[in-house]
Design goal:
This protein has a 4-stranded mixed sheet with strand order 3-2-1-4. Helix content is 38%, strand content 20%. It has a single domain, classed as Nucleotidyltransferase, domain 5, CATH 3.30.420. Helix 2 packs parallel to helix 3. The longest helix is centred in the middle third of the chain and has 18 residues. The protein is globular. By secondary structure, it is of the alpha+beta class. The termini are far apart.
């Protein structure tokens, strides 16, 4: 019987086969743990992380439930992307369902000005 993590990793590898980030249109990668949520803007061509945000950052408002915190992280990553001159990204949901915190982070990033 496969574990939940190994199932998610298999889905994530399938997504990564199709989704590639470039300097002009980086990949918005999402990682979700039980307590926190993390987002990165990654240029896969050069292997660099252009910007990163998480619910552990000092500027993140951690009051409210985890879905609201994820939306706040989406807005923060959009702001950091705008500061780096990034307006369009490809979304990498990391093997998670597009639901709940992952969806909320994506909506927050869209509200912040990123285009998917």
């Amino acid at each position: 019987m496969k574990s939940t993590i190994s199932k998610r990793k298999k889905i994530h590898y399938g997504i990564r086969r199709k989704v590639k980030g470039t300097a002009g249109r980086p990949r918005l990668s999402v990682f979700r743990s039980n307590k926190e949520i993390y987002a990165q803007l990654v240029d896969d061509v050069s292997g660099l992380t252009l910007a990163a945000a998480s619910s552990r950052d000092a500027g993140c408002n951690t009051t409210g439930n985890k879905v609201e915190v994820a939306k706040e992280v989406g807005k923060i990553i959009a702001q950091k992307g705008a500061d780096a001159g990034i307006s369009a990204v490809v979304f990498d949901r990391g093997g998670y369902l597009y639901h709940g915190r992952v969806k909320s982070l994506a909506e927050g990033a869209r509200e912040g000005g990123l285009q998917f």
